[in-house]
Amino acid sequence: MRLQLTKRTDYAIRACVHLAMVDRCPISSRRIAAEMDIPDRFLPQVMADLARAGIVGAVAGKHGGYCLRRDAADISLLELVDATDAPQRRDRCAMQDVPCDGDPACALHQVLARAEASFVDVFAGASIADLAARHRAAQHGNGHRSPERTIR
Known about the structure:
Layout: H1 7-21, H2 29-36, H3 43-52, E1 56-59, E2 65-68, H4 77-84, H5 109-124, H6 128-141
């Protein structure tokens, strides 16, 4: 089993990391998309999700774009997941193909609940600033000139 983020959350993380790494803002969505290898037609939708959640602010106009609304150290990955992905709740039992509300709990229910709790703890404890620092270090270690290239 491999845990994967949705493309929407992946793009939100990349965009916020880029905003955390730049010296000035606002930064246009076109520039964010180019620097972080995000489809520019899709990025405005993601940024709108982040703006509704209060994570980024939008500046209109010719020299407009986006800025983080808070310090990157105060923005957790869990906030980005919550802002871009609708909550998903298992409504079918994993052991039997019947509706499941956890009462009574099937054999797998406790394991799935612990996995979800671990995911929440890890993502709540990781900030955009943490990722930006790791990304910058990885890019410098790979000999890249620009620390603002795609996170992979």
